[in-house]
Amino acid sequence: MVSAIFIIAAGLGAAFLLGLLKEDQKASAFAITVAALGFMSWVAYDWAVALTTGRAAPVDILTAGAEPPFAINLRMGVAEAWLATVIGVTGLVSAFYLRPALMRLGRRAMAVLLVMTMALTGLVLTRDIFNLFVFFELVVIATGGLVLLSDDERAVAAGFKYLVVSQIISLLLLIGIIFTYHANGSLNIDDIAATPMMFTGAGLAIFLVLIALMLELKPFPANGWALDIYEAAHPGFAAIFSAASGTAALYAADKIFAAAGPDWLPLATVLGLLSFLGSGVLALKQTNDRRLLGYSSIGQIGFVLAVVGQRDILGESYLYIAGGILITHAVAKAGLYWLSGLVKGRGLDDWAVLRANPLLVFAFASFVAMLVGLPPFPGFYAKWDLMHALAGSDRLVVLGLILLGALIEAGYMFRWFGYALKREVREAFPGFATDKTAVVLVALAAGWALGFVWGAASANPNLLTALPILFALAFLVLEPLPAWAKNILAIAGLVGWFVWRYPGYDPLQMIFAVVMILGGAVILLASFYEKGRRIGFYPPTMLMYAGLALLIEAQTSFEFFAAWEVLTIGSYFLILRGRMGEPHALSYILFSLGGAFAILAGFAVASMGVQPFALDNLKALAEAAVPSAPWVFVLLAVGFMTKTASIGLHIWLPGAHAEAETDVSPMVSGILLKAGLFGLFILLMNMGHQHLWGVDLTEVLVWIGALSAFLGALMAIFQEDAKRLLAYSSISQLGYALFGLALMNHVGWLLAMMFVINHYIYKSMLFLAVGGVYKRTHTKLMYKMGGLITLMPFTFVSVLVGIIAMSGVPPLSGFGGRWLFYNAIMASDLRLPMVLIFMSGPIAFLYLFRLIHTIFLGQLKDEHRRLKEAPFWLVVPQMIFVLALLAFAVLPGMALQKVDGYIGSFFGDEPLIWSGRAITSTFGHWNPVAIMGVIGVVFVTVLALLLWMNHNAQKVKQFNIVFSAERPFKPQTTHFAWNFFAPYRKAMGFLVMPLVTTFWGAITDSLHSTADFTRRFYTGNGQTYAVQVLFFVVATYLIAMGGAS
Amino acid sequence: MTFEWIHIAYAALTLFIVINYGMIMTALVRKIGARVGGRYGIPIWQNYIDLAKNIALRSKITHGVMYYLGPVFRLTGGVGLLLFVPTIYGSVMFQNFSYAGDLILALYFVFFGTLGMALGAGESGHPHSAIGVSRGLAQVTAAELPLALGVYAISLQYQTLNITEIVAAQQGSIFNWTLFTNPLTTIAAMFAFVGTMMRSPFDVVLAPQEIPIGPPTEYHSAYLALMQTNRVLFPVAKVVIYMNLFFGGATNWAEFAIKVFAIYMVSVLIGVVYPRFRVEQSIRFFLKWGLPVGILAILTV
Amino acid sequence: MLPTIAMATGFALILMGLYGALTHRNILRMILGFTIASTGVNVVLVSVGYMPGRTAPIMDSAVPVADAAARVIDPVPQALVLTAIVIGLGVTALMLAYAYRLFRIRHSLDISKFTELKW
């Protein structure tokens, strides 16, 4: 092992060595720089590995031959080693990235870079507060030098502002240090006694040291100077400033917090959360990419600072958690800054040029996922553990605020990602520099590697070893293959997984597995239609299916949540692919993440911090009537209902489903929504009735379900866009399912189960049919179509069967749902919510008729006369669905009988008697075969009669109709389609005022206007910033002391 | 109960009786209307004449497959509705195919014919057909609501969805009828009854007196004949349900004839007294009057 | 008494310096203000280490190593001050260099003119 002192020595030595070179020996100067940085990184990494694996023990490195406190000592422990590695590698990689600038400015600039890296490492290693100060000043000076690397003239002013503030910080720090020394008689951090937070000399001294260190973390709102640096500096340096400086400063602060005692931790918590939330909100209004990243940096560092504030409860997992978040942030932020160097324009939508290289888009997506704390990156595991620790110690406010901050961050990061993927590329693409691209890819690889490491170190399963996820990720590598080949693989994978796993499933899992996995394979048949390579389709699709596959099998809360996040991410990218998908994908991911965070909070509270938490434990929680149980119920239910798009949480759905690609719409509608139902099944199965303030929460769910069913249907009938109509109809259908579940009786659950199957089949079928029509007519507006029945007969048949099934008219399978529904409500004590459901049934009829009439019946448009049937591969799955629907209609017992028995084991009753093919309930009976038989015979008889009488009817042309004494000649004026239910709008239109949209809109608007108002606080004047810093210090002191006393 | 071939013969007999009864009864009602209005009116066998005339019509056109199937759907709907409900309580012959399903089947099968006919009419491309369908569907969503609530209420009351059992519970005395045991529910259901019988004030869907509108617009010849058959069959089938649920059912054909006529006359009487609603007016009417009664009905059961 | 006076003077200098740095718009004056403030900090540092009646911490014939602990003042603050002065010099030099570049850009030394970066 090379002693860690050589990290410092190598940095300094190389910097001096550079001074000996001639000005024009730039290449050798660069070689020396790189060699030194490489050496520093290697030493640090070597230590990190050795310490982590236990090959070495943490050491104190003594200088000047004396023990502390008589000499400075450095410490190399696990945390130090890893952070030093991060800093060293960031420096090294940045050197390559900054190469053109460094070569231009020569050896002095390289020396400054070396000093910077060395000083940052020193900050991490040192155990002496005055030494800390010295390294800080070195960092300040080096920063001052490196800011000048930028081509941007404004960087000079930014650098000066930074120096001004640094002066104030160093004043505070020095005064704090000297009085801390005065109080403790030592400069060694380990000798500093834990000091209570009080109006004492020692208290003030330690406060000054702490606040100075925290000012280095650019806390909101005393951070205007830092933002200017982020915006104007060279992106290569901004990467260091964010990743390395932030990391080092945070660790420095952490050391002092550890010494100062638990009394001071709330200070870190409050300031950290303030930064996290404040800069998050302000970032919403940013249009400059680097400034936005600056805000995000500040927010993330604030987040980690808040974690530092929790170190008293985190115990051994502290390093895992704080380190996970910190390192993820460092890698992601460095990566993003490096990416920004590849993009010419500074607007957020200028990042659209990244599309020229799919690898960079993948990198961008990965970095965003890292920042937001999505799996499989370290931040995900860390956040999971953190939330459990917080819940275990009842720090629920902190928990809530952190999740809120993460959601806001997700908001602006994903919005930006959406721009990059969907906005127009405005200027000609100049090509990416290879070396810079390589640097970005290094960060990308590091992020994934860290994800693996953190997963392996986690007490929970490592997501990067889960087979479905690996299978999905494999498609990243397979991207060069043609789409059909990938499609075969994907289908084979889904079917193979199902065949392998299904013997172990219980009937409930079985139904969901059939719908999600096999059902997914059927829908994928439609994807054979797509030609070319279809880059970016299969990885997210398979990720979504991987999440679903894992969700079905999840045993613990972690597995469930991880699967949930995975399927959310996958589906987000899928939805984003839609032509106009950008805003809808954003609202989808926000609602989904909001829901996911609710689930996370729910699980954390439920587990009381104890991991692993088996899902079955929810039952114990409910049985023990723990006071938190109803809250767990609420959180989980809200989380699941974001996926089922229950009313109030539904506004993402119409756009997301309607704008998705033809084969994606059925996936996200027919399959994805069922994940929410699956969650609700698990929840209700385990927790049952919960009461909050005397209200039975399942009754609330019944109402929500009924309202969703009613309003969803009502909104659907006023849509002109066919896919939107279907999307709103999904809200309604899922409302039925939720309603059935929440009735909490046997038949109700069976009803929900039936909706899972039925809705999958007919919604997938209808979306594919409408998608096929869209492929041919290039419009989704129904009034622009008409009369397509003869041109697209197969599509017509599938829509016809679909709407008969969905409307619940016998003899198709929808009727079974209605029949179960009546039996379910008969067994329930609730009365009023039924009114809404009764109403939504016929309303469904309205929109379904409109769908089939305005597209396939009425007048054919001139421009459509030559249309052909929908593409073969789109029709194939539809025909499979038609057959499935017919089979399910005649033999519902095939799928339901086992589930019925399974549900019976929960309720301990047997309300349905399956005799032969007839089903008898407590209240009535249903004989699907007889129904089909009677209707069939009557139908055929009548038809025969008509054929006998009218077999010689003459086929007439389109306009052979007469009305109001004129002969129509224009399909446009004759096709009755637009605003089809005008009288209905007159009577009921007031019910579909977009209140929910307005509500959520008002929330985002107010956040945005707050951001716009607050950011004017950053005037740009360095002096004002300095004053703000002083005010911040004084205010913090007064509030802290006021809070302590 | 299981299927036996003789059931088909029984069902055909029921059908035969009901169709002929419907032919004559609807003609009779029109005749009464004419006499009240001081006119002579149609001959009592007018429906048969119309039927024969339509079937005999020589010019027959078609707009396409769905157009062709529309009347088939329509009549199947009517016949099916009749056959899924027991016609005569206590009679083995006239139980029809009620073992196939219960009240819910009848309730939802009502839409079968409506849907098919609407689709067929849609293919004709005639805007008046589509307008009529749009109006009809819009109106029926509100009009059916009180019935749905009423059905829910009486199934709660009798704790069964089985029509025969519901009728059985009403036997013995006239005061065992739902009409008397649960008047609120009956009133709620009668809102729906009046609203869906295609008579004034709720007949804007067909607007029979003016320009033809609604599904039959483009239909003629045997198509129209099938639809006409249904026009006499369907109301009776529907009245049978009301009769079974609220008015004690019928134990023989005479009782059947009287009760059906009486119930049918309710909508006729209201129809001749009140002028026609526009669609949104009738929707509001049902929501304002029918819905509250229905809600009261389910709350007070 | 003496250390108290010194310390009070130091803090007075800090406040004066800060006041100057935060009220004057001229960049050079600001730098000067910070210099004064850091001088004040240095005075405070020294005053903390001062102990009445003791001598400088220089080990020579006058102060033998054996009883140094009892006779000399605390040497650490003095060492710190030396370092702080050096660092202060470095930072001041850097700020002056910045001032020069800022002036070259805009021909002005008014800090309120350099506010393109904001919000």
TrEMBL record, chain A:
<feature type="transmembrane region" description="Helical">
    <location>
        <begin position="749"/>
        <end position="774"/>
    </location>
</feature>
<feature type="transmembrane region" description="Helical">
    <location>
        <begin position="317"/>
        <end position="339"/>
    </location>
</feature>
<feature type="transmembrane region" description="Helical">
    <location>
        <begin position="929"/>
        <end position="949"/>
    </location>
</feature>
<feature type="domain" description="NADH:quinone oxidoreductase/Mrp antiporter transmembrane">
    <location>
        <begin position="128"/>
        <end position="406"/>
    </location>
</feature>
<feature type="transmembrane region" description="Helical">
    <location>
        <begin position="700"/>
        <end position="718"/>
    </location>
</feature>
<feature type="domain" description="NADH:quinone oxidoreductase/Mrp antiporter transmembrane">
    <location>
        <begin position="558"/>
        <end position="838"/>
    </location>
</feature>
<feature type="transmembrane region" description="Helical">
    <location>
        <begin position="664"/>
        <end position="688"/>
    </location>
</feature>
<comment type="similarity">
    <text>Belongs to the CPA3 antiporters (TC 2.A.63) subunit D family.</text>
</comment>
<feature type="transmembrane region" description="Helical">
    <location>
        <begin position="28"/>
        <end position="45"/>
    </location>
</feature>
<feature type="transmembrane region" description="Helical">
    <location>
        <begin position="438"/>
        <end position="457"/>
    </location>
</feature>
<feature type="transmembrane region" description="Helical">
    <location>
        <begin position="488"/>
        <end position="504"/>
    </location>
</feature>
<feature type="transmembrane region" description="Helical">
    <location>
        <begin position="630"/>
        <end position="652"/>
    </location>
</feature>
<keyword id="KW-1133">Transmembrane helix</keyword>
<feature type="transmembrane region" description="Helical">
    <location>
        <begin position="397"/>
        <end position="417"/>
    </location>
</feature>
<feature type="transmembrane region" description="Helical">
    <location>
        <begin position="81"/>
        <end position="98"/>
    </location>
</feature>
From TrEMBL, chain B:
<dbReference type="Pfam" id="PF00146">
    <property type="entry name" value="NADHdh"/>
</dbReference>
<feature type="transmembrane region" description="Helical">
    <location>
        <begin position="65"/>
        <end position="85"/>
    </location>
</feature>
<protein>
    <submittedName>
        <fullName>NADH dehydrogenase</fullName>
    </submittedName>
</protein>
<feature type="transmembrane region" description="Helical">
    <location>
        <begin position="256"/>
        <end position="274"/>
    </location>
</feature>
<feature type="transmembrane region" description="Helical">
    <location>
        <begin position="97"/>
        <end position="121"/>
    </location>
</feature>
<feature type="transmembrane region" description="Helical">
    <location>
        <begin position="6"/>
        <end position="29"/>
    </location>
</feature>
<dbReference type="InterPro" id="IPR001694">
    <property type="entry name" value="NADH_UbQ_OxRdtase_su1/FPO"/>
</dbReference>
<feature type="transmembrane region" description="Helical">
    <location>
        <begin position="174"/>
        <end position="194"/>
    </location>
</feature>
<keyword id="KW-0812">Transmembrane</keyword>
<dbReference type="InterPro" id="IPR052561">
    <property type="entry name" value="ComplexI_Subunit1"/>
</dbReference>
<keyword id="KW-1133">Transmembrane helix</keyword>
<keyword id="KW-0472">Membrane</keyword>
<feature type="transmembrane region" description="Helical">
    <location>
        <begin position="133"/>
        <end position="154"/>
    </location>
</feature>
UniProtKB/TrEMBL annotation, chain C:
<keyword id="KW-0812">Transmembrane</keyword>
<dbReference type="InterPro" id="IPR050601">
    <property type="entry name" value="CPA3_antiporter_subunitC"/>
</dbReference>
<keyword id="KW-1133">Transmembrane helix</keyword>
<keyword id="KW-0472">Membrane</keyword>
<feature type="transmembrane region" description="Helical">
    <location>
        <begin position="79"/>
        <end position="100"/>
    </location>
</feature>
<protein>
    <submittedName>
        <fullName>Cation:proton antiporter</fullName>
    </submittedName>
</protein>
<dbReference type="Pfam" id="PF00420">
    <property type="entry name" value="Oxidored_q2"/>
</dbReference>
<feature type="transmembrane region" description="Helical">
    <location>
        <begin position="30"/>
        <end position="51"/>
    </location>
</feature>
<feature type="transmembrane region" description="Helical">
    <location>
        <begin position="6"/>
        <end position="23"/>
    </location>
</feature>
<dbReference type="InterPro" id="IPR039428">
    <property type="entry name" value="NUOK/Mnh_C1-like"/>
</dbReference>
<keyword id="KW-1003">Cell membrane</keyword>
<comment type="similarity">
    <text>Belongs to the CPA3 antiporters (TC 2.A.63) subunit C family.</text>
</comment>
